[in-house]
# Entry
Amino acid sequence: MSRRFTPKVVTANHLLEGDAVWLTSDNAWTRTMSEAQFLDDEDLANERLAYALTQEADVVSPYLADAQLGENGPEPTHFRETFRTRGPSNYAHGKQVEVA
Amino acid sequence: MYNYNEFDKAFLDERVEQFSAQVARRIDGSLTEDEFRPLRLMNGLYLQLHAYMLRVAIPYGSLDAAKMRQLAYIAERFDKGYGHFTTRQNIQYNWPKLPDVPAILRALADVGMHAIQTSGNTIRNVTSDHFAGAAADELLDPRPFAELIRQWSTDHPEFQFLPRKFKVAITGSPNDRAVVKAHDIGLRMVEKDGEVGFEVIVGGGLGRTPIVGKVIRDFLPQEDLLPYLESVVSVYNLLGRRDNKYKARIKITVMENGLDTYRELVEQEFIGRRALFNGVDQALLDEIHARFRRPDLAQGRSVEAFDQAYGADPVFRSWADTNLAAHKQGDHAIVTVSIKAHGETPGDASAEQMRVLADLAEEFGYDELRISHEQNVILPHIHKADLPAVHARLAAVGLATANVGLISDIIACPGMDYCALATARSIPIAQQIAERFDELKLEHEVGPLKLKISGCINACGHHHVGHIGILGLDRAGVENYQITLGGDGTETAAIGERTGPGFPADEIVSAVERLVKAYLEHRSSVEETFLETYRRLGMAPFKEALYGEVKERHAA
Ligand code: HEM
Ligand code: SF4
# Structure
C-alpha cells in the first residue's frame, strides 16, 4: 500500500511587505489562500516548490504547507497556517482586515 | 546614563548607509536571500509570521525622553502605532516593511540608537538591574561594572570564537532583579566585613535545558573582577564542547566536569592572570565612573502632597502600594509603570503612551527612563511630592494599572501571534488570565505572584522561573499549555517543576484559577506568598486542584 500524500500549497513571505502569500496555478502570488494552487500530487508539489524557490525577487523562504480542499479552494489544516491567513489574535491587524 | 564613545554618530551613520545599500541591493535582485539574511539579522531585522520584525537595542534598558519620543514617532510613522517592550530590555516593531527599514534606522541613529544585534559566539551584552542607580537596597551602582565588562570583552582577542554565545548579568543589590542565576555568568554584589564585592555564579540558563547557576566564588573583591572573569571564560574556552550545539553552553561544561573541578581550574588560571592585570582595568573603571551621568536629586522638598493623596485617594494608595519601590534617597521613589493593563498585550505601548512617559521623565524624572525585563517601564527617580501628578497623567492614558508584581503583571513572549518559531500562542492566554483575575477582584488579596508564558521551548517568556510558568506546545496539531510551579528568578532561584499533562487553550485559564484558589485555601497566613506555600507543601495540593476533578470524573 502506498503512503497517502497529504495535499499541499506553496506558501512564502512577500519580500517587501513580509506577509504571507501563496502560489497560484498561473505563477502569481496571492494574499488569499483559497486562490492558491491545490497540490494533491507529490511530484507536482515538488515541482511547484522548485519553481517558487526561483522567485527570490518576490518572496522569501517558500515551503510546502499541508492543505485540504474546502468550498472555495485550499484551506489550512494546521493552526499555524490558519493564523497566517488571518494575522494576530490580539489586534485586528494583518490579513483579517487587509484582505477583502 | 552612559554616553557611548564607540557608537558615535559617524559610526552609526556609516552602518545606516551600509544597510540601506544592502536593502536596495536585495530589492533590485543583486543580493540573494541567503546573502541578505545574515546582514539583516545583524541589523536586528527578522522575518516573522505576518511581517518583518525590527528589534531595537536599548543598552542597559536605559533611555531618555528624546529617545522615547523617537520610538513613538517610529511606531506611528512606520508601524501600526505601537511598539513591544520585551524581556530582553529592548523594543520590537512588529510591522515594518522592508523598503522603510533604512528610514527607520536613520530615525534611530538621529537620537543615537540602533538595531545592531550582537551575534556570534562571543561575550554578549551585559545586562543589569533596571533599578540600578536608584534602589535603596543597592550597595553600588552595577552599571559602571557592566560597562567595564563590555569594554573588556568587546574584541577581546582570546574570546572571539567561544564554543557558544556567552551572557553576563550583574546586580548591585543582594536582591536580584536581573535574573543573574539564569546567565552564563551572574554577578551579585554582596558585602563582607564592610567590603563590597561579588558573589560569582556560573552555568545558569533557560531555554531547552534550564539550569540554575551555581556559586563558584562566594566573595570576589571588586578589583579582581576582570582577571577572575577572564579565568572563568578561558577555562570554558578550552573545555567547552564544540561538537554539539545543544551541549556547548557553559552550563553543560560545568555540569559535565563538576563544579569543584571547574572551580579548581579557574583558581589555577586566576593566579597567573591576576598578575598580568596591572591596574589598567581600575583606571578604565575610574574613567567609566566619570562618564556616568547621575542626576542631582532635589533636596529638602516637602513630601506632604504625597501623604495627602495617599490618605485621601484609595486609587492612588493602591497604585502607590504596588507600583513604587524604595529609592535610596527617602523622599524619592522608583515608579514602575505597568504596561500590563488587564486584557491588553503585555509590553505593548502606544505612541501616545510613549510620549506621555517621555513627558513625565522630562518634567519630573531627571530625564531618565528604563525598560525592565518584566516588560514594564521605570521612572527611576520621582520626588514623592510629584507622584500624585505623575499618577494622574499616567491614568489618563491607561498606564496607571496597580498590578506590579501581581498575577496580572504577566510576562509573555509574542508566541504564535507573531513569532515564526512558536509552537502555540501566548498573548491571548495572558490577556484572558489577567481579565479573569480582574473580574474575580482577587489579585491584591493573592499578593506577589509571577506568572510567565512562553510560546515555545526557547523560553523567551522566562516561564521556567515563573512562580507559575506556562509553556505553549503543539500537541497533535492543537495548542496545549503545560504548567510548571515553583520557579523563581531571584537570588533564591529555582526552575519550575511540571505539574503533569498540559491543558488545551480553553481550559488553561480555569486551571490557573484553581491553582490560585488552592493557594488561598492552603496558605498559613496572608503573609505567606504563593511561592512560600508551594515550597512548604510541595506539589500535592496544587496537583489535586489541577487534576483532582478529572480523576473523579473518570471514576464516576
Ligand atoms: C519574535 C521573535 C523572536 C524570536 C525568533 C526569538 C528566538 C529566540 C531563540 C531561538 C532563542 C534561543 C536562543 C539560543 O539559546 O540559542 C531565544 C532566547 C531568548 N529570547 Fe527570544 N525570540 C523572539 C522574541 C523574543 C522576545 C519578544 C523576547 C522578550 C519578551 C525574547 C526574549 C528571549 C530571551 C530572554 C531569551 C534567552 C532565554 C535563555 O536564557 O535561554 N525573545 N529567542
Ligand atoms: S519563546 Fe518561542 S514563541 Fe516565544 S518569542 Fe521565543 S522563540 Fe518565539
User: Anything to note?
Assistant: Chain B has four domains: 6-110, 135-291, 305-396, 411-547. The pocket of iron/sulfur cluster (ligand 2) is lined by residues B 413-415, 419, 421-422, 454-456, 458-461 (CB under 6 Å). The CA atoms of residues 353 and 397 of chain B lie 6 Å apart.
